[in-house]
Every structure is written in structure tokens, then in C-alpha cells.
Amino acid sequence: MSEPVFLVTGGSRGIGAAIARAAAGAGYRVVLSYVSNAEQAHGVVAEIEAAGGKAQAVHADTSIEADVERLLAAVDAAGTLKALAYNAGITGAPSRLEAADPAILARVVNVNLVGAMLCARAAIPRMSTRQGGQGGSIVLMSSRATAYGSPNECVWYAASKGGVDALSLGLARELGLDGIRVNAVSPGPIDTGMLSEEKRRSALALSPVGRIGTPEEAAAAVMFLVSEEASFVTGANLAVSGGR
Predict the structure, then answer these.
(1) Helix intervals (H) in 28-114
(2) Residue 214 sits in a domain of what CATH number?
(3) Could you give the CA distance from residue 38 to residue 32 in angstroms, rounded to a whole number?
(4) What φ, ψ does residue 48 adopt, rounded to 5°?
(5) If DSSP codes are grouped into helix, strand and coil, which group holds residue 110?
(6) Total structural domains in the chain?
């Protein structure tokens, strides 16, 4: 039997890298994608291999169908796709909406939402028990920005993640009889490179628990959702935000 593969998009750093490490620790062969951080992506692979796991990094822009097809071909060569964490995401420079570059608006929606659709679309026939697959789990990384709206900062990012929420729920209901569970994880402020010092101070001031989350805490939520302990959980959206 071929090895179970966990595909992590945007796996070169932050939450994606934490998911990749956790997945390898749970016994999956990991395929992680990256766009611009080749050195970091291969560094994550090296960490996993040094710990006795198996991983490979694939350069792929998940908003481009041909790149997604090439990424999934690498998954097929590695084993059997059992879990997908769609973590690729960008925000663009902060501003009010009228000051935003339309090209950035399109890019954010394409990476955050269209990319999630393309990757899920490619994963479904590989996982579906009605199409000869063994079942599987898809986790889409959303954001608590959908609740905040991110005014004066990046409303387009919040809007793209709102689309991810709807996609997760719709797919969960669409794929239930295919043996595929679909859930979302919505991190709040997490200590990654996406968190500026200004946002860090604001998040700390507003945090009910007085701290910022770690990438590993977000990854733990993903690993729970793909595990057998969550076998009756689909269509859920798990906030990892310290109550915010």
C-alpha cells in the first residue's frame, strides 16, 4: 500500500511550516508547496528529514491551474493523498479600499480563494470513495478577520477568507458521501511574519488571554481535524484565537 500523503500549501514558513512538521510527526509523507521562499521550504524539509520523517518541497503557485496539476502529480508520485491543508495566503499592503491596487485585490482573491478551490478540486477525485479513493480530509485555513472585517487595513483579505468559510461549509455538505471531511481553521493573531509590530501591540491589548498564539497551536487544530478523533466533524470552523 502506498504511503499516506499530507499536502500543505504555503508550507515554507509560519503556520504552514508548523503543519508540515506536525504532519510528518504523525507519520504522513509531506508534500509542501511554496512560491518565493525556496530556501525556507527546503529548510523545513531538512528539519523533517533530520527528525526521521519524509517530505519534499514543490514550487507551485496554487492560483494557477497548471501549477496545481503539477503539484498534485508530485503527490501522486509520493503516495496516496489523505489530507490537504490549504494554507497559502497573502494580504497585500494595508490601506483603505479606495487606495488599494486593483491588481493586488485580484491577486489576494486568486491566491486565498480561487487557489483553495483549485486545490480542493484536484484533491476530490483522488480522495473520493465514490471515485475509487480511500477518503480523506481537507482543512482550509481561514481567518478571524472574517469576523473583524479588517477595516482601514485589508477588507479584501477578510472578504477572501469569508469566501473560504462558505467554500468549506459547502464542500463539507457536497462531499459527505464521498468519504471526505472538510473543515476550516480560523486563526486569530498568530506569531508569524504576517504580524506587524503595530498589529502585535493591538492584538495584545485586545486579547482576552493576554497573549498571541503560536503557529504550533494553529497546526494542532489542523491535526485534530484530520484525525480519527474528528471522524464525525465536518463543516466546522475552529477558531484558534484566544477568545478574540
Answers:
(1) 38-50, 65-78, 102-109
(2) 3.40.50.720
(3) 11
(4) -65, -45
(5) helix
(6) 1
Query: Amino acid identity of 185?
Result: V
pLDDT tens digits, residue range 213-226?
999 999 999 999 99
* pLDDT tens, residue by residue, 160-218: 999 999 999 999 999 999 999 999 999 998 887 666 677 777 777 777 888 889 999 99
Quote the CA–CA distance of 136 and 130 in Å, as a whole number.
Answer: 12
Query: Is there a catalytic annotation at residue 157?
Result: yes
Taking Cα atoms as reference points, which of 43, 39, 5 lies closest to residue 23? 5
∠ CA 234-8-2, nearest 5°, is 85
Burial 40-71 (b: 16+ CB within 10 A, else e): bbbebbeebeeeebbbbbbebbbbbeebbeeb
What digits encode the pLDDT tens for the residues 52-98?
Answer: 999 999 999 999 999 999 999 999 999 999 999 999 999 999 999 99
Q: What is the pLDDT of residues 189-199, one digit of tens each?
A: 888 766 667 77
At 152, the pLDDT band (50, 70, 90 cuts) reads very high
Query: 9: which residues sit within 8 A by CB, 6+ positions away?
Result: 16, 32, 33, 60, 62, 71, 84, 85, 86, 87, 88, 115, 119
Look up the domain containing 39 and give its range: 4-240
